[in-house]
Design goal:
The protein has about 1500 residues and is of the alpha+beta class. The chain is about 25% helix and about 25% strand. The strands form 13 sheets. Strands 1, 2, 29, 30, 31, 32, 33 and 34 form an eight-stranded antiparallel sheet that branches. A hairpin with a 4-residue loop joins strand 22 and strand 23. The longest helix is centred in the C-terminal third of the chain and has 20 residues. The two termini are about 60 Å apart.
Length: about 1500
C-alpha cells in the first residue's frame, strides 16, 4: 500500500536558533506547514520544501503568553491559531503579497516555449510570498490541552474541564464554553435516553480531541485515560445538545486520530498498542474493530518496551496510519491492521556490526500532499557537557547534534526537519480495475510497474537507473531475454525483483504536482496519470509521454473521480472550469492529446469514483447514485469517436450515510448463483452485480430477476433493456481491496476466474469461490452456490493473477550503509570536540521496494477439504495441475497441515492430514511430495506423517517400480532413521544395484557412502542428501575419468613400450590404479566386512558388464566410482576377462563407440601414398596434437600407380575440412560430431567393390564437418586447395577415406585408455580386439610379441589364434574393409600360426577369399601392374568398368549399393546415442 523508499531528507532551516522545532501542522491541502519552536512560528512550503516566513516572538510578549505549544490552520489557510502555555490562543493572519509575488522564480533557458498563460498557472511551482500578523490574543484562563479546527469554528479544550467553541471571524462575540460535567455520557445512546449508567466527569478534562466529519462528532481522550465520543444532537453545538458514549474497560488512552473515510477512531494507549474503534450505527455504542500492536513473534526484543503511543497520523487518503511511541520509532499500518513497516527491528534498529541504534524519537509528524512525504520533527534529550569521547560511540544523531562546544556559550544551530519519502499503490486513490494483474506504484515523480512482456523486457535497462537507482544498491536491471511459454509470461512476471521505473514528465510535474491518480491499461503497456490539473499518458512501446499541446486545455480541467483505460482510450471523470460543468471524457491514446479528439458527456453531479467493466463505465456520484454508461466505438462515422450512452441510474442514498465513505465501486459478472441456474442464459455475461466498498463493508447489488421477465418483440430493445438491481447484500467486513476478473471464464479454471478476491488487513485474504456441480449433474439443493474461504498470506497483496493462482505484492527491503559515517560517531581518538553530525545514511538504512509473490492455491484446497468439499478441491487442483509450481503447492499443503496437527497440544478430534494424504494420491507427484515434505520437517513428526500416508517401505518400493531412483534415495534416508539397519541395508542394496544397472553414477557414489555409513555404525547421523561434495567429477557426468597420477600418452605408438619380455608378475601385484579419493576409501579399511559387501556388488556388476561386452559402460563405471579395474581384471584374467567370440565382441565395440566399419576406397589400386609425400604435409599441418598413427596408420595395399582412370571422391562434402588444412591452422577437432556425440549423417559415395553387401561394410562418414556446402561436381574450391597443399586428388581421396574410417576422437581416446588398462592387467585377448578396431599394427605386434612369454597360458594363445581366424573369416565374407589391415599384420599372424603349426592349425586359412588371395598375402614388390588383383575376386576396378570417361563417371552408381544399409547404420548409431541417458551420452576425457 505505502512503502518507504530511499533515505530521509533533512531540511535545514536557514535561520540559526537555539530552539528546536517540536510541532508541525499541515494546512488542509498540505501545501503549507506550520512549524513551532518555543518562541517562533515558521511557515514552510511543500514543493520546493523551503521556508517562506518566520515570526519570532519578542521576549516581553513571550514572558506574558508563555511558550508556544501547538497550532491549527483555518481550513481556507487564511489564519493560524497557536496555543501558548499560559492559557492564551494567539491568532495570526496569513497574508499573501499579491498574485505575482513569489519567493523563487523559475528561470527558463532562452527560447523556451513556457509562458504564463493564465494568472493562477504558476501558483503551485513557486513558493508564494506570505507574511504573518498577530491579531488580538484570546485568554482562556486555564492551560490549553488540545485544539481542533472546524470550517467555521475553533474547538479548544482546557485543563479546567471546559470545551470552548470560538468563531474564527468574530472571536469575542462567538465564544461559548461548555462544561464537560453537563454532557451526559453512557455506554450507548439508548441507555443514555433510558437513564442508564453515566460517566462521572467531575474534575476530568479532555487531553486530546479530533473531529470526525463522517461520524459528525468528536473522538476524545480524557486525562484519566478513558476514551469517548461526543456527538451533537442538533446542528449547532450547545451544552444541552451534546451527548457522549464511552468505551468500556479502557483506562490508558493517550492520543486519538480519526479516519473519515472508514469512520474509524484510533486511540493510542500507554501499553503501546493502538485500539481502533467504530461506532455501531444502530445503538451508537463504541465497538472495538481491531488493534494495531507489535507481536512478540516478530519483535521479541521490543514488543512490550515501546512506551506509550505518542502520536497517530492517518495518511491523506486514509488508507494507512503512522504510529510513533514515546521511546521512539515509526510504524506504518494499513487501515484494517496489516503492518507495512516498523523501524524498531532489523536494519532500522541494528548497525551492521550488530550493535543497537537508539530509535529516532519523534516530537511531531504529519503527512505531506498525497502522502508522498512524512514530515518529522525530532525530540532530543539534552546531554551534560562532561560526556567523554568514548561514550560517543553509541551516540545517536540527537546526541551528536546536541554536543556542546566548550568555547561557545550558546550553540546556535540550524534546526532540521526530516522528510521520509514514500511510494504508494495506485489502488489507494484510484481503485480502478481495468488491469488487476499488474502492480502499479507511484512516487512523487515516478511510476513503478511490474513488467511481464518479454518482447519489451530486453530494452528495460536504459530506463531504470533513474531517481532511486542512484543509490549504490540498485544495479542495472538485467531482464530475462527469453522465457518458456508459461501462462501469461509467468516467469517474467515473477522472474526478477526489479521494477520498471518510469520518470514522470518534468514539464507536467512542474505545474501539476502532486500526482493524484494513476492507471494502467489491460495490456500493461500504457499508463495515465493525473495531477492537480489535466492529465498525461505514457506508452511503453514508444517510451514517450503525451501531454496536452494546448496548455490552456490542460489547466481548464481537473480530474475528480479518477481515470481508467478502455481499449485504447483514457476515460476520465473531470470538472471543466470554463463551463463549470462535471464531464465524462474519452481521449484516444493514438492521436495527440487535444480536446478536438475527445468524446465528452455531461454529468449532472460531481463524480467521486469511476470504474470500467468490459464496455461499460460505472460512476459513483456525490449524490450517492451510481450511473452505468455503455461505450461503443463508431467505425462508420467520419470521426471515429466512441459513443457513450447512459444505461441505468441506481440511487443508493438509503444505504450510504455519507458519499465520502465509498472506497470503491466495481461492476462484475459475479453473482450468488452460477450461470447454469439462470432462466435467460444470454444475460449471464453482462454486468450482473455492483460491488460497493462502503467504509470497509462490502455490499453487493445483484440484478433482480424475481419480477416478470417481459420480453420485447424487437430483439434490439431486449438487448438494451437492463434488469433493475435488487436490495444490497453484505458480503464481508473490514475490506481494503477487491479484485474480480472481467475475462469470460474458460471451461478450465472456472473456480479461479469466477471468484471474488478480498483483502481484509490483519484478517488476511478472503476468496468468495463458486462451487460447480460435476459434469453438469444437478446441483445438490443443500450445497450453496458460493463459499467464502479465509486464509492468511505474509505479503501485502496488490494484484491477483487469477489463472496463475498467484498474488503479487511489494515489500520494503533495507540495506545498511553504516560505513558512510566515516567514523563520525566513533569519537576520533583525542581529535578534540569537533564532532560532525552523524549522517542520515548511517542512521537509517537505505529502503527499497521489492516485488514479492505468494502462491495461494494450497490455502484454498485446504479450506475446501476442511469443509468436506473434496470433490470441488479435486476439480480445482486438476484445472491447475499444469502450473509449474503445482508440486510445490501440494508440498506446502501437506507441510502446513502436518506442522499444525503434529505439534498441537490438544488432541485433534477430526484430523485433516489423512484427508490431505488421500487427496494428493490423486496426482503423479505424490511420492516426491511426501518425501520432500518429510525431509523438510523434523524427525519427531515423521511417525505422524507416515501413519497418514503409508509405510515408507511401501513407498520406496513404489518408487523403484516407477524407476524414480532419486526419490527412492530420499526414502532410503527416512527408512534409515525409522527402521532397523538390516532393513535399510536391504533396501539400499536394491537401489544400488538398480542405479548401477542404469548408470546413475552420482547416485551410486551416494549409495556406497550410505552403505558404508550403515556398516560402520554412523547411522545415527543421517547421510546428507545427494548434494554433498564428492570426489572431483569429470565435467560432464558419465565420462571416463583418467587416472590422475598416471601419464598415458595416447599418441605414443605401442612399440615404445619394451616389446621384449612381458612381465606378468607386475600385473598380478595390485597396480597403482586410479588414485581418486574413492579408490583410497576401498583400501583404507578393506578388512571391514561392509567394504567387502560393497566390493562384491561392484565386482558382480563389472563381471556382468564384461560378460555382455559393454566395455564403454565398464570404463564409465570404473572412472566414476573409482573402481580398481586393473586389479580386478588381473584376478578375472582367466575367467570373465576371456573373450569367447572375437567377431561379436568386435561388432559390439563398433556400435558402442560409434566406430564406423572400415571400407576400401576406390583408389586402392593406384594410391601414390607409399612414397610418404602426403604423410609429411599432414603430420605437420593437421596432426599436431593427435596420435602419430591417427590418419594414415598403415600403408595402403595398392602399389601400382597405373593410369587406370580417375579415382572417385568418397565423400562429396570435403572443402571446409580442406580449408582447415590450407589455412595452416591446428586441428579443428576433426569430428564435428564430437560435441554432440552423435554421428553426423553425410552422403557417402561408394563404388561397387564387393560381391556381398552387408551393412557392416558401408562406412559412415562420421568425422566430416556438417557445414560443408560443396556442390557435387564443383571442383574449383578443391583445386585451389590442391595448389596450396600440393596434393593430388588421389592422395586426398585416401586421406578422406581414412577419416571416414575413423570414429569420434573421444571414442579413440577411450579405446586407448581401455587398451592401456587391459595391457596392464594382462588381458591380451581384449588388447588384440582393441588393436583390431583401432587398426593399429604396433599394438597387435606388441601383443603377439607378449605371447612368446612363458608366463602366458597356452589356452590364451590358442584363444587369440582362434579369434583371429574367426575375424579373418568374417572379414572375408562380411567386412572387406578389415582385409588390408589383416594383410598388414600378416608377418605377426604368420609367426603365431607357425608357433601353432604343430597344433594342427592350417596357416592357409588366413588367406582372403578369391583367386588372387595368395598374391596378396605375399609381401609383393611389383609396382607396375596395370590391374592389380582385387580382394573381391579379380574383378577390374569400378572406374574401368564404367569406362573412366568422366572424373565423376561412377557417380551414377554412387548409391546403388542398398543405400538403405548405410543409412540404417548411421541411424542406429544415432538412435543408440539418443537412448543413452544424459549422464552416459556426453563424456569428457581429462588427460594428465
Amino acid at each position: 500500500m505505502y512503502f518507504l523508499t530511499g533515505w530521509p531528507r533533512r531540511l535545514l532551516c536557514p535561520l540559526k536558533s537555539a530552539e528546536e522545532p517540536f510541532h508541525i501542522q499541515p494546512s488542509y491541502q498540505r501545501i503549507f506547514f506550520a512549524v513551532l519552536s518555543e518562541t517562533q512560528l515558521s511557515i514552510w512550503f511543500s514543493r520546493p520544501s523551503v521556508l517562506i516566513v518566520s515570526y519570532i516572538e519578542s521576549a516581553k510578549a513571550s514572558s506574558r503568553f508563555g511558550h508556544y505549544q501547538q497550532s491549527e490552520w483555518r481550513p481556507d489557510n487564511s489564519m493560524i491559531a497557536v496555543v501558548a502555555s499560559k492559557g492564551y490562543i494567539l491568532l495570526f493572519d496569513v497574508l499573501g503579497a499579491g498574485d505575482d509575488k513569489y519567493l523563487y522564480e523559475p528561470v527558463y533557458p532562452k527560447g523556451s516555449h513556457r509562458v504564463k498563460v493564465n494568472p493562477g498557472y504558476k501558483e503551485e511551482q513557486c513558493a508564494p510570498v506570505l507574511s504573518l500578523e498577530m491579531k488580538r490574543p484570546v485568554d482562556l484562563e486555564a492551560p490549553i490541552t488540545s485544539l481542533q479546527s472546524l470550517p467555521e469554528d475553533l474547538v479548544v479544550t482546557t485543563a479546567d474541564g471546559y470545551l470552548h467553541i470560538l468563531h474564527w471571524d468574530g472571536i469575542s462575540n462567538g465564544h461559548r464554553a461548555i462544561s464537560l460535567c453537563t454532557v451526559p455520557f453512557s455506554l450507548d445512546l439508548q441507555s443514555s435516553r433510558a437513564g442508564g449508567p453515566c460517566l462521572d466527569l467531575d474534575g476530568v478534562h479532555i487531553r486530546d480531541i479530533e473531529y470526525c466529519v463522517t461520524l459528525d462528532g468528536f473522538a476524545v481522550v480524557f486525562d484519566d485515560g478513558r476514551l469517548g465520543f461526543i456527538t451533537p444532537t442538533a446542528s449547532r453545538f450547545s451544552a444541552d445538545q451534546l451527548q457522549g458514549v464511552w468505551a468500556a474497560d479502557v483506562t490508558d488512552g493517550t492520543c486519538v486520530a480519526v479516519n473519515n473515510k472508514y469512520r474509524l477512531m484510533a486511540f493510542g494507549c500507554t501499553s503501546g498498542s493502538v485500539l481502533v474503534y467504530m461506532v455501531e450505527t444502530t445503538t451508537g455504542s463504541m465497538q472495538l474493530s481491531h488493534k494495531l500492536e507489535l507481536t512478540p513473534k516478530h519483535y521479541p526484543d521490543v514488543w512490550n518496551k515501546t512506551g506509550p503511543v505518542k502520536m497517530i497520523r492517518w495518511s491523506p487518503d486514509y488508507s494507512v496510519a503512522m504510529v510513533t511511541w514515546e521511546c521512539g520509532g515509526l510504524s506504518l499500518w494499513s487501515v484494517f491492521g496489516a503492518q507495512l513497516i516498523c523501524t524498531l527491528g532489523e536494519d532500522f534498529a541494528y548497525r551492521s556490526d550488530g550493535t543497537k541504534k537508539d530509535p529516532l524519537k519523534i516530537s511531531s509528524m504529519c503527512w505531506g500532499a498525497e502522502g508522498y512525504h512524512l514530515w518529522v520533527t525530532e525530540r532530543r534529550e539534552e546531554r551534560p557537557d562532561t560526556e567523554t569521547e568514548t561514550e560517543t560511540e553509541t551516540e545517536t544523531e540527537e546526541g551528536v547534534e546536541e554536543k556542546m562546544e566548550e568555547d561557545r556559550p550558546v550553540d546556535l544551530k540550524q534546526a532540521g526537519i526530516l522528510q521520509f519519502q514514500f511510494v504508494k499503490s495506485a489502488l489507494t486513490t484510484n481503485p480502478c480495475t481495468s488491469n488487476q494483474e499488474q502492480v502499479l506504484l507511484h512516487g512523487e515523480d515516478r511510476l513503478y510497474l511490474t513488467w511481464g512482456d518479454t518482447t519489451q523486457a530486453q530494452s528495460a535497462s536504459p530506463d531504470t537507473p533513474s531517481g532511486v537507482d542512484k543509490s549504490p544498491h540498485h544495479k542495472p536491471v538485467t531482464l530475462p531475454t527469453s522465457a518458456p511459454d508459461l501462462s501469461q509470461g509467468l516467469c517474467t512476471l515473477l522472474g526478477h525483483k526489479h521494477w520498471h521505473v518510469v520518470q514522470i514528465h518534468s514539464t507536467y510535474l512542474e505545474s501539476n504536482w502532486p500526482i493524484r491518480f494513476a492507471a494502467i491499461d489491460s495490456a500493461g503497456q500504457c499508463m495515465a496519470i493525473a495531477g492537480r490539473r489535466g492529465f498525461a499518458h505514457y506508452s511503453l512501446y514508444t517510451r514517450k509521454w503525451k501531454l496536452f499541446g494546448n496548455i490552456t486545455q490542460e489547466q481548464n480541467l481537473t480530474v475528480t473521480g479518477g481515470l481508467a483505460w478502455w481499449n485504447d482510450y483514457v476515460v476520465i471523470a473531470c470538472y471543466n472550469f470554463t463551463d463549470q460543468q462535471e464531464e465524462l471524457r474519452l481521449y484516444p491514446r493514438s492521436s495527440n492529446l487535444d480536446n478536438a479528439f475527445c468524446s465528452t458527456t455531461r454529468l449532472h453531479s460531481d463524480t467521486l469514483l469511476l470504474n470500467v467493466f468490459r464496455n461499460m463505465v460505472v460512476l459513483f456520484r456525490a449524490d450517492c447514485s451510481i450511473c452505468l454508461y455503455s461505450i461503443t466505438s463508431n467505425q462508420d462515422s467520419s470521426t471515429p469517436l466512441p459513443c457513450v450512452e447512459l444505461l441505468q441510474e441506481v440511487s443508493m442514498s438509503r444505504y450510504i450515510p455519507h458519499p465520502g465513505l465509498v472506497v470503491s465501486v466495481t461492476l462484475t459478472s459475479v453473482r450468488t448463483e452460477t450461470g447454469i441456474t439462470l432462466k435467460t442464459p444470454q444475460q449471464v455475461c453482462l454486468a450482473e452485480s455492483i460491488m460497493l466498498n462502503i467504509a470497509g463493508q462490502l455490499i453487493m447489488l445483484q440484478r433482480d430477476r424475481s419480477g416478470p421477465q417481459v420480453r420485447e418483440k424487437d430483439p434490439a430493445l431486449n438487448q438494451k433493456k437492463l434488469l433493475p438491481f435488487g436490495s444490497p447484500v453484505v458480503l464481508a467486513q473490514c475490506v481494503e481491496i477487491v479484485w474480480t476478473t472481467c475475462r469470460s471464464s474458460s471451461r478450465k479454471k472456472r473456480h479461479l476466474l469466477e471468484a471474488l478476491w478480498l483483502w481484509c488487513g490483519e484478517a488476511g485474504m478472503k476468496v468468495w469461490l463458486p462451487l460447480f456441480p460435476r459434469d453438469h449433474r444437478k446441483p445438490q439443493s443443500f450445497l450453496s452456490r458460493r463459499i467464502m474461504l479465509p486464509f492468511h498470506i505474509n505479503i501485502y497483496p496488490l494484484a491477483v493473477l487469477f489463472e496463475d493462482a498467484l498474488v503479487l505484492g511489494a515489500t520494503n527491503e533495507t540495506v545498511l550503509y553504516d560505513s558512510v559515517s566515516g567514523g563520525g560517531g566513533g569519537g576520533g581518538g583525542g581529535g578534540g570536540p569537533q564532532l560532525v553530525r552523524e549522517p542520515l545514511e548511517a542512521l537509517f538504512p537505505f529502503c527499497t521496494v521489492e516485488r514479492t509473490s505468494h502462491i495461494y492455491l494450497h490455502h484454498i484446497l485446504r479450506q475446501l477439504l476442511v469443509r468436506n468439499l473434496g470433490e470441488q478441491a479435486l476439480m480445482l487442483a486438476q484445472s491447475c495441475a499444469a502450473l509449474p509450481y503445482f508440486p510445490h503447492v501440494l508440498e506446502l499443503m501437506v507441510h502446513v497441515v502436518l506442522e499444525e496437527e503434529a505439534t498441537s497440544r490438544e488432541p485433534i478430534p477430526d484430523p485433516l492430514l489423512p484427508t490431505v494424504a488421500k487427496f494428493i494420491t490423486e496426482f503423479p507427484h505424490f511420492l516426491q511430495t511426501i518425501v520432500h515434505c518429510a525431509r523438510k520437517t523434523e524427525y519427531a513428526l515423521w511417525n505422524y506423517l507416515f501413519a497418514a500416508v503409508g509405510n515408507p517401505k511401501d513407498l520406496f518400493e513404489e518408487c523403484l517400480m516407477a524407476q524414480d531412483l532419486d526419490t527412492a534415495a530420499s526414502y532410503l534416508i527416512i527408512l534409515q532413521n525409522m527402521e532397523a539397519p538390516a532393513v535399510s541395508r536391504q533396501h539400499a542394496t536394491l537401489l544400488f544395484n538398480t542405479a548401477l544397472e542404469q548408470g546413475k553414477w552420482d547416485l551410486c557414489r551416494h549409495m556406497i557412502r550410505f552403505l558404508k555409513a550403515i556398516g560402520s555404525g554412523e547411522s545415527e547421523t543421517p547421510p546428507s542428501t545427494p548434494t554433498t561434495q564428492e570426489p572431483p567429477q569429470p565435467s560432464a557426468a558419465g565420462g571416463f575419468e583418467f587416472f590422475r597420477h598416471r601419464s598415458i600418452s595416447l599418441s605414443q605408438s605401442a612399440d615404445s613400450i619394451a616389446a621384449g619380455k612381458f612381465n606378468l608378475q607386475k600385473t598380478f601385484s595390485m597396480p597403482s590404479g586410479p588414485s581418486t579419493k574413492g579408490a583410497d576409501r576401498w583400501s583404507k579399511d578393506a578388512d571391514c566386512a561392509e567394504n567387502m559387501y560393497i566390493d562384491m556388488m561392484l565386482w558382480r556388476h563389472a563381471r556382468h558388464l564384461l560378460e555382455q561386452v559393454r566395455l564403454r559402460e565398464l570404463g564409465c563405471f570404473s572412472a566414476q566410482l573409482g573402481f580398481e579395474l586393473i586389479g580386478w581384471l588381473c584376478r578375472e584374467r582367466t575367467r570373465v576377462a576371456r573373450v569367447d567370440d572375437f567377431v561379436s565382441a568386435l561388432k559390439r565395440l563398433h556400435s558402442d563407440f560409434l566406430w564406423p566399419f572400415p571400407v576400401i576406397p576406390a583408389c586402392a589400386l593406384n594410391s601414390p601414398l607409399k612414397n610418404g609425400r602426403c604423410r609429411s604435409v599432414l603430420s605437420t599441418q593437421l596432426l599436431k596434437s593427435q596420435s602419430a598413427d591417427s590418419l594414415l596408420n598403415s600403408p595402403m595395399e595398392g602399389e601400382g600407380e597405373g593410369e587406370g582412370g580417375l579415382p572417385l571422391p568418397s565423400v562429396s562434402a570435403r572443402h571446409s575440412w580442406l580449408d582447415g588444412l590450407s589455412s595452416g591452422t591446428g586441428p579443428k577437432e576433426t569430428d564435428s560430431s564430437s560435441s554432440h556425440g552423435a554421428p553426423v549423417p553425410q552422403e557417402a559415395f561408394l563404388s561397387p567393390l564387393i560381391n556381398k553387401v552387408d551393412e557392416c561394410s558401408i562406412g559412415s562418414a562420421t568425422d566430416l564437418t556438417e557445414t560443408s556446402s560443396m556442390v557435387d561436381g564443383d571442383w574449383t574450391m578443391v583445386d585451389e586447395n590442391f595448389t596450396t597443399l600440393c596434393l593430388s586428388q588421389s592422395e586426398l581421396e585416401h586421406i578422406s577415406m581414412e577419416l571416414a574410417n575413423k570414429g569420434p576422437h573421444k571414442s579413440q581416446v577411450q579405446l586407448r585408455y581401455l587398451l592401456h588398462v587391459f595391457m596392464e592387467a594382462g588381458c591380451l585377448e581384449w588388447c588384440v580386439i582393441i588393436g583390431l578396431i583401432l587398426r593399429d599394427a604396433s599394438i597387435i605386434k606388441q601383443v603377439l610379441g607378449f605371447l612368446e612369454s612363458p608366463d602366458v597360458q597356452p589356452d590364451t594363445i590358442a584363444n587369440i589364434r582362434t579369434g583371429l581366424l574367426a575375424v579373418d573369416a568374417w572379414a572375408s565374407s562380411d567386412c572387406l574393409g578389415y582385409k588390408p589391415f589383416l594383410k598388414l599384420i600378416q608377418p605377426q599372424l604368420q609367426k603365431l600360426l607357425e608357433s601353432a603349426a604343430e597344433s594342427g592349425v592350417n596357416p592357409e586359412s588366413f588367406q582372403p577369399a578369391g583367386s588372387a588371395g595368395a598374391k596378396l598375402l605375399e609381401p609383393t614388390h611389383h609396382h607396375h601392374h596395370h590391374h592389380h588383383p582385387r580382394p573381391g575376386g579379380g574383378r577390374p576396378g569400378a572406374e574401368e568398368r564404367l569406362g573412366g570417361s568422366t572424373p565423376l563417371g561412377s557417380l551414377s552408381l554412387s548409391l546403388s549399393l542398398e543405400a538403405s544399409g548405410a543409412g540404417s547404420l548411421e541411424r542406429c548409431a544415432e538412435e543408440e546415442q539418443k537412448e543413452r541417458s544424459p549422464e552416459e551420452g556426453a563424456y569428457d576425457c581429462t588427460l594428465s
